Structure formats: structure tokens, C-alpha cells
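User: Please predict the structure of the protein below. I'd like the answer in C-alpha cell form so I can feed it into my own downstream comparison script.

Assistant: Understood. Taking the following sequence of 170 residues as input:
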Amino acid sequence: MYRFICKILLIILLFSNLISIVDAEIVEGFITKVDTINNKISIDDKTYKISKDCFIRFNNNPVTINGLRPVYSNYYKWVIVNINGNLVMGIDSYYKVVEGEIKEVSLVAGWLTVSQFQQDSNSNYESLIEKYYFPEKFNTILKSYKKNGHIVMVTALDRLLYLPLTNNSI
């Protein structure tokens, strides 16, 4: 029995070099184009083919490829894509409008905390305080924002994407 197992292991080791294993790659960025006819998406400036078996989610809910389209002209969704070889195997896209009160801004560290307004009727009106990270280009805009001031922004996960009232984005 021991010899049999050793032979099987030896065969597996010898043939393992013949099996090509492709490493998965994770890509993040803005979905700038959705091609439903050819089943492709463009992330920033690069286009990818979507696998037939690809799972697609928007804000953690299953959607079709049409669910990846921009909400409004030049307001693109943020995406995290799992690519295996040349095919997209998984797509998680995000886009959320947040309205609330600014609690703290750190221009040096590149983050702000916001007490989000709870807008549903089932809410107990306790504030939900979240931290969002932003690139340096937002510093000049956020410099004028005051603690306890009102803010409306578009986010993806913990990332600030747009400040719609100022017409600025990353």
C-alpha cells in the first residue's frame, strides 16, 4: 500500500509541471465603459472580457452587466475585479450617496469622519459615524468644510469618490 501511494505521488509530481496554473489578479478602479454586446468592461483605461460564469454584484447585490453602467454622465462606479488569465471572473461594484454631518477632517492623513443621516423610517435616528479616505486633490475643497457642517458625497466602501455639490471627483 505504501509503495502504491508513493508511486501515485511521484506521478502527480512529474505531471504537475504540465498543468498550467494561472494566478488570479485583483484590479480596482472606475468602470468607465460597459459593452453589453461584446461582454466587456473598461476599468480606467484598460478593457477586459467578462467570463460567461462571472458573478457581478453592485453594493453586494447580484446584478447583470447592465447594473455596472454609470449612474450619471461621468459619475462612474468603483469596482474591484477578479481576473484569471484574460477573463474577468468576479465583479464587485460600489456607489453610494452619503449625506451627513462632518465630525472630523484630517487633510494630512487624507480622511474624514461623517455622522450619516439615517433616512429610513425604521431608523432609531442614532447616527452612524464612518471614516472615508480621499486623495490629496480633495484637500483644497475639504479645507473649507467646517466641523458639524453638512456634506453630501458619493462613496465606495471607505473611499470618497465625488463631492457632487462641488463638481469634483478623484
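That's the full C-alpha cell string. The helical segments are 2-15, 139-142.
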